[in-house]
Structure formats: C-alpha cells, structure tokens
Amino acid sequence: MRDFIFFLEYHNKMKKVLVLGCTGSIGTNSLEIIEKEKEFSLCGLQAHTSEKKLEELGLKFHCPTLLTSKLKSQNDFQDFLDKTKPDIVINGIAGASGLLPSKIVLENGIDLALANKETVVMAGPLIKECAKNHNAKILPVDSEHSAIFCLINQLGKDKLDKIIITASGGPFRNYSKDELKNITVEKALNHPTWKMGKKITVDSSTLANKGLEVIEAMYLFDTDINNIQVIVHPQSIVHSLIRSKDGMLYAQLSEPDMKHPIINALYWPENKYNYLKKFDLFDKELTFFKPRFDDFPLLKYAYEAAKNGNAHTIVFNAANEVAVNAFLNKQISYLQIAEIVKKVLEKDWKNLPENFDEVFEIDTQARNYAKELI
Fold first, then answer.
1. What does residue 19 show for φ and ψ, rounded to 5 degrees?
2. Which end of the chain is less packed: N or C, by CB atoms within 10 Å?
3. Which residue, 293, 338, 347, is CA-closest to 315?
4. In degrees rounded to 5, what are phi and psi of residue 160?
C-alpha cells in the first residue's frame, strides 16, 4: 500500500505534456524526450491527418486521448484540453494552422512550448498580450529563439544591444544567380544539416525561414527590427548570439539537434542533467558569412514586412506558404516563390489587426491573392 501511495505521489509530481503535431519532427523528438526523461508524462497527442500513426503512438505511450485535424472547431480543441489537463503544451504544428491552438492553450493559462513560429509572426502583439493576461509563459522551441531566450535570461534584457540569428544558408548557399534558376523540388528538399518537414526545408533554402525567425524575434523579445541581424553559419553549431552593450558577444553552441531546445522548454526555469550527449568543440570548424540579400530576397522582404507593421508580417507568411506549396506541387519555379511573395506584399495592407478574427481575415485575403497570381 505504501509503495502504491509513493507511486501516485511521484506520478502527480510529473509534468503532464500534451504534444501537438506529434508525427512531425518536433513531435517525434518530443516523444523521445518524454520516453527517456522520467520527469514527464504524456497526457495527449494531436496529429494533422496521420490517423494510423496517431493511434500507434497512442498505444505505444498508453495515451488514449487523441485528436486529429478533422475536428475543426475551437470547442473540439477546448474539450481536448479539458480531458488532458496538461501542465505544458508543445506546439509542433506546421504553418498558420498552429495559431488557433496556441491562442486557446494560453487562454487556459497553460504554458506553451512553441515551435510554431507562425503563431508569433501572424499575431505577435496579440499572442503576447494573451499570455500575459492569463499568466501563461511562451517558451520558444525554435533552436535560434531558444538560444536567444536562454542568453537574454542569463545576461539580462537591460544589457542587450543586438540579437544575431544564425542561418545554415541552406543547400544553395554557394549557388550563383544563374544556378538558382534551375533548382528542382528534389534539390530543395535536401538540407545539409537539419532533418525537417518539406515546407520548412524549402523555407530554409530560400532564407524565408530566417525571415520568419527575424520577425518572431522582434515580437518575442520586444526588440527593434534594426537591432536584429542574420549571419550565415553553415555548421549550425552556434544557434544564435546576443551582443551586450559593452560590445561582447555571447553564444549558445550545441550539435544541430532539436531535442536541446525542447528539453530547455520542458524543464524551464530549471537547468538539469539529461540523457543527451554532452557537446565539445574538439575537431569542430566554425565559419560565418554575410547573407546574400539580393540572391535570396525573401529575407529582405521579411525585414521590410517587419518595418511596415503587423499586417505585412501576416501577409509575408501567408503568401510564402501558398507559394511554397505551389512549388512543391511543381506549379511554379523556385525563383517564383519570392516573386509571388513580393507581389502580394505590394498590395495595400495598412490596417493593423486589432483581434484574432482580423488576423485570420488578412491571412485569408493574402492567400487568395497569392493563389490568383499562381
């Protein structure tokens, strides 16, 4: 009886984790961590449409509470949260569809481990206000933003001068302008250092993903866009840097493995030993280059969108999602991705969204216009 009581007390102390996008890269890494780090218990799983895989994971982890994207309404997701009662939710959903779950999680006062950068790109001011109003934390799971988050917390926001976000440069970092004209889908999906989903892999090759991360950093860390810099670092070992007011640089280094930022978010604010291999610098080569804005213009368009205001960041994301999907379906060429995003951004997007409904309305308008162009 005493052993049983001890088990219940131990189980109740475990942090209950709900994983959204459980069949993707973030979800798969999260489940490995939950399996190996005994301080966490899995209380629910969500996947987009991979029902068979979802059911297999439910059986493997003895987790009966499952949800697919076929259940569309906000009430369905709220019921899911009510049943699972998580302490923290990992949002590994890809694309704009991750925004609504993020909003509902925070409205319930639940901490959000956020890998869905579109949540902040589309609704940065609103989502931060939502978190503040419901006393919930947003813990970034992007490797770059996790690094920045940890570095700022250690240094102190009052000492921060500049944020420097690293980019691998993708597989076409050394391609000439002429060579970029002949990029195929197959080439674009062959990333040199990270294993990710198709959309984010293409985004990494065009530097659109780095543009989204610049916008995300601006909102997450309340930083002027002019104080955020991108530097190309092909080895993906330095995950980002910050510069203090005295001119010193501070960096976070590790192997390119998404399990590090996930563990950081799950254990936050504690810093604990874990099962991952310890990093060392022996035999490592670190190189850094300036990004080629003219040859990879989506990064430049992201900066412009950030300077022009929140509606433009919504539009940048929406147009890029539509264009990348068209490229993956071989409807447009590689270079036309940037051309479509540029044309959509050139429309009048001056109205700032005052609520989430207006965010979704602008998102829909931008997508429709991008589809017309295609």
1. -110, 120
2. N
3. 347
4. -75, 135
Could you please report the per-residue DSSP string of 114-180?
E--THHHHHHHHHHHHHHHHTT--EEE-SHHHHHHHHHHHHH-GGGEEEEEEEE---TTTT--HHHH
Edge to edge, the sheet with strand 249-253 lists 228-232, 160-167, 238-244, 249-253
- Least Cα distance to 33 among 99, 105, 88 occurs for 88
Burial of 150 (C-beta count, 10 Å sphere; 0-12/13-18/19+): buried
Distances (CA, A) of 201 to 10, 89, 209, 294, 315: 40, 24, 8, 20, 20
Q: Which helix (H) or strand (E) holds 20?
A: strand 15-20
How do strand 66-68 and strand 40-47 relate by DSSP bridges? parallel
Q: What stretch of H or E contains 99?
A: helix 99-107
Q: Are 134 and 117 in contact (CB under 8 A)?
A: no
Minimal CA–CA distance to 342: which of 310, 362, 312? 312
Is beta strand 40-47 parallel, antiparallel or unpaired with respect to 138-140?
Answer: unpaired
